[in-house]
């Protein structure tokens, strides 16, 4: 076999140089680095050497997790701070306490709760509730108030009857002549007749009657109907001798719109109505009773005041057993009549006869005649002689 010699060109020599350089660099590497698995080098690393290896950044120290310390429960201190003081116990009612009978629907039930709070400190007043939340004057087949109220009056023997009803009456009415649709003239005529009949049950029994109007509600159509029904209640109740209590302003704003939050009886801003805009909160019940409380106290009389004692011949203090007085030499005189004319030393009142005419000329006459006023009396403010005396002394 014949070997042919070839001339090695420039390219060949360069390839040899690169090969030798690569081999030398590989040999000079430390054994530890040679054993490492490295990435293939590029042309710049072959010509200018490898880049300096940076020391790896130390890993961040692990975050210390704070373990919760064991907290001792201070039951005594927490209870003393969070526990509200108990309200005072209501005053016990006396045996002959006067009864306030409250009847009606769910609004009357809230009114009764507010009145119980209002008269809690009055031992002479008892609030008796006889309400039916779903009742009204339209559905007599469900609950007939005109039949039940006389029985309640005989049983309870109340001193005052309070009626609050009508929130459930916005519906069709069934009569002997047929069905009457709500908001028609025939419906309002029949409804007014029923209101008058129920009010006469109390007035005919000689019991004072307070008829409480409906408050505003969130539904606008319900509020508009409540205004119309309140006019019927006022007209019917006052006709038979009862008293109508208007509570409308307490549950609307200055523009007459329904409010959920308003002033309570102390002027503080509180929530008066429930989330449905119909029912009353505890503060709303108390505010509703606030409008009725004044008239109820007037009708109940002295029994509403726990500290009021009526004086009569049986409990008057003994005034004859007073201790002896330390005053001595007391001169007693007869009582003097303020209209006695002898008080001024005469037998006639002042002005009964004209004063005597003076003969001395008046200051006006002296000014006209002499052109000068007479000297002022000594000591008067216009006496200039005092000024001259003071200047002379200085």
What does this structure look like?
- GO terms for molecular function: hydrolase activity, acting on ester bonds.
- InterPro entries: DUF459, SGNH_hydro_sf.
- Residues 73-84 have a biased composition (Low complexity).
- It holds the Pfam family DUF459.
- This is DUF459 domain-containing protein.
- This protein has 394 residues and is α/β, with parallel strands linked by helices.
- The chain has a domain at 98-304: 3-Layer(aba) Sandwich (Rossmann fold), CATH 3.40.50.
- The chain is 35% helix and 10% strand.
- The strands form three sheets. The chain has a five-stranded parallel β-sheet, with helices on both faces. A two-stranded antiparallel sheet has the order 4-5. The protein has a two-stranded antiparallel sheet with strand order 8-9.
- The longest helix has 20 residues, at 185-204.
- The chain is flat.
- The N and C termini lie far apart (165 Å).
Summarize the structure.
This protein is α/β, with parallel strands linked by helices and 394 residues long. Helix content is 35%, strand content 10%. It has a domain at 98-304: 3-Layer(aba) Sandwich (Rossmann fold), CATH 3.40.50.
How is this fold's topology laid out?
Elements: H1 10-28, H2 31-35, H3 43-48, H4 75-82, E1 98-104, H5 106-118, E2 125-131, H6 145-156, E3 160-164, E4 173-175, E5 178-180, H7 185-204, E6 209-212, H8 220-239, E7 243-245, E8 261-263, E9 269-271, H9 282-300, H10 363-370, H11 385-393
Parallel strand pairs: 1-2, 1-3, 3-6, 6-7
Antiparallel strand pairs: 4-5, 8-9
Helix pairs in contact: 5-9, 6-7, 7-8
